[in-house]
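Task 17 of the worksheet. Students: predict the tertiary structure of the chain below and write it out as structure tokens. Keep your answer in the requested format; marks are given for formatting as well as content.
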Amino acid sequence: MLGIILLLVLFSCLVLLFEKKLSDVPGLIPTKKRILYFFSGVALSGILVVLNITAETILFSLNWKMRDFHYLEPALVVWQFFLSVFTEELIFRGIIIYILMRKLRKHTAMLISSALFGFYHWFSYEMFGAGLVPMLYVFLMTSLAGYCWAFAYLKSRTLLLPLGMHLGWNCINWVFAKKGTYGQGLFVRINELALTEVQNLILSLLKGLVPVAFMYLVLKLYFDSKNKSQIGKFEKTSVESTDAGLPR
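Model answer:
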């Protein structure tokens, strides 16, 4: 928690330095719209993970059972994920993108931030020594997720949307994890299949690329339609204002 407070102070200092005034650049002051963005983000990523697990279960004939756990364990895990996700969003989608966009184009800043997010997961997942292919896979998948969440931040102008998406992604994945960041998930596989290389490839794509691609597609369709709606309203208002001075 102290780390988050320090990051917020650092972000505020950067905004004050560059803007010469304090403003809510990360979009963290809660409003009805931003809170809706947060819970929509949680729901979107959570649904995609559940669909992903369902597809995996059907394709590979998996069976699950719920393990015994203390009723406070899920709440504690969600809180731990919230702290870690909030920290990562402040750093990679907040501070880094804000600094990069002072000198670079928006898309370039997003790409650099996403690459740094991918490199970071080599350390957080302890990937060094795991082999080149697993390291490249982790880098690619986490970088793509980072790009998607950077897109969500810049389009919504609030970190609460990528925060919700990131939180939902991590929490629901943990529920079905064999060995997650904060221990075993709530559901355990009761059958393990020996997979071929092709099956492993399909499974890897299901877990990483497909959900992120759908997440990005949903965001793009939503914000594109929103922009068109705003442009339409502006054009209608402009026409009405012009017509108001014409003789009838």
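Marker's comment: Residues 35-224 form one domain. The mean pLDDT is 86.
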